[in-house]
Queue: 2 jobs
Job 1
Amino acid sequence: MVTAAQHHLIPDPSSAVIFEQVRLARGSRVVLDDVNLHLPVGKVTAILGPSGAGKSTLLHAITGELVPARGTLRVLDHALPCRSTAELFRLRRRMGVLLQGNGLLSDLSVFENVALPLRVHTRLPEPLLAELVNLKLNAVGLADAAHLAPQELSGGMARRVALARALVLDPPIMLYDEPLTGLDPIACGVVLDLIRRLNDSLGLTSLVITHHVNETLPYADRAIVVANGGICFDGTPDALQASGDPLIRQFLDGAPDGPIGFDYRRQGHA
Amino acid sequence: MRDLLPALGRMGVFLARILGAVRFNRMFVADTLHQLHVIGSRSVSIVAVGGAFVGLVLSLQGYRTLATFGASSSLGTLLGLSLYRELGPVLAAILFCGRAGSAMAAELGLMRATDQITALSMMAIDPVGKVVAPRFLAGVLSMPLLTMVFCAFAIFGGYLQAVHVLGLDAGFFWGSLQDSIDLQQDFGQALVKSVAFGLVTSLIATHVGYHTPPTIEGTSRATTEAVVQGSLMVLCLDFLISALFY
């Protein structure tokens, strides 16, 4: 439980997200324990790990969907959990989230999908709103696709539209949940290149959650590996590649046998 | 019974969330008008056809029964009273459940399964205000109008059967209908019932759709529950309102 005193931690301007001794649980099942993380401002951080390791659970904690069972969590100098939905929504306006399933509204066109956050949260005149939407669509290379329906888009295009929509309110932090899932190698390259370029040109802080190690590491400033209920590596991509830790090597080399178990085990059972 | 009270409580909380999310801004009104078209206008044809056939069969059966007592001239009365007091609101609501209630539940279930509801929440947009409340309001507003369409087509169907097939005098038919229908008692009862049915069926459809697990089975179950629970609640509520009116 987060105490009232912990809500008043000293803000750290160099970290966009701070986890301190955080425990994250789904019901009675502890997914991650004793998580200590500082995500530096202005950098692209890749959170890597096998499926089911708890990568998305970390993202759910940052977006306020999952309340930490223990420890302290601060996002953009704001302590989580929020006291009300209104407070949580105020914080989320400052976050861009790219979901694994894109979440494009199927009854709206590409243009209207990207315009939606602006229409709800701002009172911009229509010409200015249109200009902003076109600017974002142009940034992801889809200015000519504004009139299309989400059903008419390829997987890579839909991912880029969702990216434009996540960026439209100019959030200081971008969270990407498995942005490469279901994409071909070219689309993967396009999306990763966009993540890197947008991070640098707009001065964002980016968190990329993925299990696509080889594709993501060249674009990341920092790599964090999540496995076996905790953080097992935190460093630069080069240090990760050079690591001799058997757990890290199993994950990087894709070895079927090693410290990361393949079989599902109930907690409390050896 | 142990599960019923918590379920009713959850439904009540959800209704309060929906009503709290109603806004009178341009976007909300546009969303609601769009849903009125999808839910209301597109249900007109099925309700009209259903109404016409109910009128035809009611007239046919009613005429035969009344004729045995020499009261066939009262067919308009039978048709009007049974339609406005019971059959019109109930059958229109059951058709509405099958056509629009199932669609509402399936749409919301699919939106949940395809991350659309999560995406709205991540954009700090209240999903209940954006996708649930416009559907709910459109359902509540559509139901009385659809009931009137149902009754109008049923009476027209009954008129065709009675006058042009069975040979009843048109004056007797319209005269008995006009004399027996009271605006406040009968028309009012149809209106009250249809608003109540619209509220209950739309609430059930949006509730089961919005809260369904994000799976294929979840969407399928939500669709079935919207129709089954909605139809049963219509029949149950019909009895309660009828008992109150008498």
Job 2
Amino acid sequence: MGGPHGHKLHFHGHSPVHRIPAHLKILALLGFVLVVVATPREWYWAYAAYLAAIAVVVAISRVPATYLLKRMVVEIPFVVFALLLPFVAHGPYTEVLGLSLSESGLLSAWGLLVKGTLGVLASLTLAATTEPQELLAGLERLRLPTLLVQIMGFMVRYLDVVTSEMQRMKVARESRGFTARNPRHWPVLARSAGALFIRSYERGERVHLAMLSRGYTGRMPRP
Amino acid sequence: MTPVLDVRGLAFAYPDGHQALFGVDLHVHRGERVALLGPNGAGKTTLVLHLNGILSAGAGSVAVSGLPVTKENVPEIRRRVGIVFQDPDDQLFMGTVRQDVGFGPANLGLKGAELEARVQHALDQVGMAEYADRPPHHLSFGQRRRVAVATVLAMEPEILVLDEPSSNLDPASRRELADILRSLDVTVLMVTHDLPYALELCPRAVVLSDGTVVADGSTYDVLTDDELMRAHRLELPFGFDPRTVGPPPVRG
């Protein structure tokens, strides 16, 4: 339960990038993503510049590139979707390696892939250089409604608890000879997910009880 | 002298009709440490939830230092009665230990330096001051249990109610927690199945069984009453005999 340091996405360090106030980093990320999304797909050199900019920030932060690359697996569903586009899109076709692909599809796939990758990479860099607590404090300084910040705070707090609960359930299933190999096993996984949901819900009730016991009246105290 | 805890004829049935308490009487005086023993399903947790007004009495009454537990008094009652729940992950829900310990006093309206002092003092009492800025989920289980105690101490309660304080602790953490509890100058009601722990910490024990109090006396006498123990599914762990340990020395 719980490692000694930081969150799974966080890479402990003391670089200048780590030290920048969280709200500035959040604004920088937001600005960067908006600029990337607004850039026309055909401006290939611009994307090279964006990637170079991220590379510089990562180099200063001294977060190993492999650390970030490994965590880019979250993007895979988008990559799959992007790879399908040239096959399903219409318009003029072109020959690539003997395959007839839609030109507009290829361009869309490129746009989706490059914008998505840059966004994910920039977000991971933020997560790697900012503690979740600082991130929440940063959002609060940016005047995000307190209620939302609190919900995110609870999420950060209980993410580890719920994932370790999920892990224990998986170990318990496998200890009794179960491994999910094909869709016939999915109902078991679905029931596990249901059990996890109920457990989390009940934990929520117990947490609420513990809050009430310490004088909670529906409003979080302002520090 | 008004007892810190005064429970009279308390009866309670859950909405589904299951009656958990049948007329419980319990008085705890200032400075006492009392163990609440009983088999699973005896109504211990139900009783505890009445002490700070989470559940309200079907019949009978509960008063804390003379103040009856009623809807209007709930905020003050919850300051006076500090409950430490069994799973510290339920009790510690804020981002850092400091925020968590400050949650209760902040709800009482404390601010700034005063709040900070309360938090610091509570953390010192449980020996966790150096962890103030760590997120709770990065602490060991024993440390989390101690912080959970601090979250309640920070409200300066008149009675500390502990639900299974020794559960899931390794022997060293269990002993450290005992040292902490002994060092506190506060009335304690401890719900537990850990009978050696009860004997070690609490001079007095109350046995709850099937929703009524069936025994109330010195912990040593209760644990050595074989007939009573058998009748209420209480069993000493293998190799433990209170007679060889002897009654704990009288506190000064």
